[in-house]
# Entry
Amino acid sequence: MSEKIAAIVMPKWGMAMEEGTVVAWHAEEGAAVTEGQEVVDVESPKIANAIEAKQGGLLRRRVAALGDVLPVGGLLGVIAGAEVPEADIDAFVKGYVTPAGEGGAAAGPSVASIEAGGRRFAYLDQGAGEPPLVLIHGFGGDLGSWMFNQPALAEARRVIAIDLPGHGGSQKDVGDGSVAGLAAAIGTAIDALGLARYHLAGHSLGGAVALAIAGARPQQVASLVLVASAGLGPEIDGGFIADFTAAERRKEMTGVAQMLFADPALVTRKLVEDMLRIKRIDGVTEAMRRIAARSFAQGRQAEDVAAPFPDAVPTLVIWGGKDRIVPASHADKITGARKEIFPAAGHMVHAEAYAEVNRLIGEFCAANG
Amino acid sequence: MARILTYREALREALRQVLEEDPTVIVMGEDIAGGLGAPGELDAWGGDMGVTKGLFGQFGPERILDTPISESAYIGAAVGAATCGLRPIAELMFVDFMGVCFDQLLNQGAKFRYMFGGKAKTPVVIRTQYGAGYRTAAQHSQSLYPLFAHVPGLKVVIPSTAYDAKGLLISSVRDDDPVVFFEHKVLYDEARDHVPEAPYAIPFGEANFVREGEDVTIVAIGRMVHVAKRAADKLAQEKIEVELIDPRTISPLDEDSILESVEKTGRLVVVDEAHPRCGMAADIAALVADKAFKSLKAPVKCVTAPHTPVPFSPVLEDAFIPSDMAVAAAARTVMA
# Structure
């Protein structure tokens, strides 16, 4: 692909996504766009979100029209500078081939499992390039919570998203439900995967787990990314934890899901169904109850959730300014960390501002080995 | 989880998992293990559709009971065993054969909890096949679930996907009331989708929104969910956005989800493979007329099979089954 001509393609958000629909264009053909600007909104069966320009230039072609349904990898539009001749753009569009197989539900990477410390862990391993990045999701989620991030980050390095004990495809035993216990368990999985040096990123509860792992084995952790992380202060929305743990049906879960996002329009019925699918698995609710009772009782994060901060590990803290679960002010707790706040995003900042978050994480990992 | 199973495989996995988790679960039915004409090995058949294949080998003759061809006997035995502490799963090959088992199920099984003041429970599951399209003629092709939805004390489950088949079957076995579990014979191979490996339970009375849309609500049952999906794809090209609801269980019925959707769209099409008289289409239409009349912008349309036996002639049988064309046409009518 010419460096001057950039394709805007249908992304793959989640393993089940095969195609998406164009629901809005935010720039006219011929308009100037800057890197990171939202150019087009796309809807998958799960979720609607914006696609941002990977490079600045002019939006030379809107190849897909409103309402068009394209397979994953399909060409939505073309960005290029004014100096690129029309004929080259036409040739690029004409010559574009949608990568085969990427849209297939059966194609692409699939979840694997590994035994470690007497437990089974599910994980999704994507991309190549050392040191790898390990992603740890939040309370009540699973590795699919990184669907907007993992594929993009895996373009530059190996990225392993892992299910916490009690969640997704991992074994449901969460021990005493403490963050230290979860961190020790994930540590055994990291060892079983043979990772000697890696980047670590965690969201929410997964952030507290990542923090604890970095505290326990700082020499292994090349860099630490904390996204709307627990473990940095006592405040947490206890009502959310209780409602999420109790939710069994669509109506209850819709209210819970809307707490996670600054923009409630992102919460589709499919997204809610996906959250329910995680919770319906035997043992998940019990595991959440146990973790909540041990680590988030009475609307406060237990004291030992906060691990001693590993000073030696370069750390990036990312938060949404409209986070209703864990306050963004906790981002200030780590002096010396790089801090990035997205004022318009909520607790799921890595979904709501994924393009910018991906760029930050990618650059931070690259700068630290 | 990116693990794709067929409807048949999902059901078999659910059966294996409930047999593993609960020693009181037993399976009984015709040809589920050996059967007349089986090639000498006891695990040869797995039922006429192969759903139970492998279970006899794993769980043995004490728990996988190959019954004589006497539906009245073994459905009665299953109901009786359920009252005495077991959790039987009885496979009634075709729901059309239920005629000889009615007293056992609807006058006994369905009544025990009520008549013993809540002190008795009857945790029996009758798995059974329904539906046309398999060239099995009028006595093996009916969609008789409305008969069971009519009877208080029975729960009626009709999964349309492999994911739902597994989660709803596990819920059915864990439920303390009699459940009639309807499997469409065409879906065993046609329905394939993502199914988690771990056991999971889908609550009854919780509809699935297969698709969200603003213009017209389509409620479809069982195999008709797939027909309605194809219709919705066609309609989307005409800029008609369908909200497609799969009730998953018709007793209990998730009335709230249907009403909530119709209050948004103002239009309703119900698609059902059963006959039109006293069926779920009429039932859901009446529900909406009663509770959401003021939201309606057009009369409710029902797309059902006709009030005739299922024809044996392949051409007529194909015409009998509601088509995506018919569903799309009904949606266009309510949009006009």
About this structure: The longest strand of chain A covers residues 119-126. Residues 112-367 of chain A form a domain with the Rossmann fold fold (CATH 3.40.50.1820).
